[in-house]
Amino acid sequence: MSFAASVTQEARALVGDGKGRSLATIAGTWGVLLGTRMIYPVLLPYFRESYGLSLTVAGLLVTILWLGSALGQLPGGILADRYSERSMMVAGALVVAFAIGALVLSPTALALFAATALIGVGQSLYPIARITMLADIYPDRIGSALGATMATGDLGQTVFPPIASVLAAAIAWQAGIGFVAPLLVVGAVALWAALPAQADTDGGIDTLSMDTARHVLAELSRENVVFIAFILFLYILIWQAFTGLYPTYLVEEKGLASSTASLLFSLFFAVGVVVKPVAGATYDRVGLRWSLVAVLSGPVVGFAVLPLVEGFAALIAVTVVVSPMLGSGAITQSYFSDAFSEEIRGTGLGVVRTATATLGAAGPVLFGLLADRGYFDEGYWLLSGVVLVVVLLTLRLPSE
């Protein structure tokens, strides 16, 4: 079968039997949520100027955002197992919309941090419910469905940063993020209208008892779950360190204008729009090991040469080389969705994602510490080394 025919077949399977409406609504709102998150790196120079933040504190602000989006995923996963996934996704969108309103009114740096934490917590309610619902809708194509959804997330991350940059420069930084709140309200209404109502289930976990803990730990110890979770942690650490300060690096170290830096930042996610569906479909066909190696090899080179290149064209090339790493999420999350039994899928995903994302949230603040001490360039060489370690660990996995 030709590549074009294979893509057509996958697309028809994803949208057929009325599934397309649910997929589009889940993916569209996810795109708005991720677009909101990636507005932060673009607005960091404005936050630094308005609130007098150092690079370390600016990195801490991004860490708080990621930490909030990590800590709520375990309770979000438990609630997704026990209650309506539709309700969880709607609640997440509305909480973030409210928190953005608080953010644009923040009079002090403390208020800025508090509103940022609430945005993270709201975002944490959405991901697990999204994955478990997609696993129910697409039991045989979770990689493709999740890859398509994550590609829509990258579309939001591609489009929103330059819009935010233009609005911040033309009006104020508050406009650069405030425009998202109405979109999230619309997304919440669309989710409620498009997704089927779900009754409470007795199959999920009711309480965090010792029996519950033993059940989850038994699932975690199966096959390579812990090992893959460690690889996921390293990837999140790298990804958050890179995305959190990349626009700032381009402005302060490479001399680009903020608007130009935001375009390069958007290019990073634009490549992900293509990479993630392909990565998810590749996982469905060839398994975990080689699909991960394929998407992580480019960043080893890209991070290593980034401090050495100058000029807009060279920076475009490096950004494109690094971008395939975005496919890692579609691969690892598809693996975890397959690894856990249905009755605790949300809880198991919540444990893994909360643990890995909480630890990985240290990436931006650690990278900010290096940058404040004059080691911005060296930080990218360090990232290259860590990605190389991830690739070598991945090669130890058994072939499927």
TrEMBL record:
Q: Which UniProt keywords apply?
A: Cell membrane, Membrane, Transmembrane, Transmembrane helix
Q: What InterPro entries does the entry give?
A: MFS (IPR011701), MFS_dom (IPR020846), MFS_Efflux_Transporters (IPR050189), MFS_trans_sf (IPR036259)
Q: How does it sit in the membrane?
A: Multi-pass membrane protein
Where is this gene product found?
Cell membrane
Do the record's keywords include Transmembrane helix? yes
UniProt keyword Transferase, yes or no: no
Molecular function GO labels: transmembrane transporter activity
> How is this protein annotated for GO cellular component?
plasma membrane
Membrane-spanning intervals of the chain: 22-40, 52-72, 93-119, 171-195, 224-243, 255-275, 287-306, 312-336, 348-367, 379-397
Q: Major facilitator superfamily (MFS) profile domain: from which residue to which, for each copy?
A: 21-400
Query: Which PROSITE patterns does the UniProt record give?
Result: MFS
Protein name (Swiss-Prot/TrEMBL):
Nitrate/nitrite transporter NarK
Give the originating organism.
Answer: Halobellus clavatus
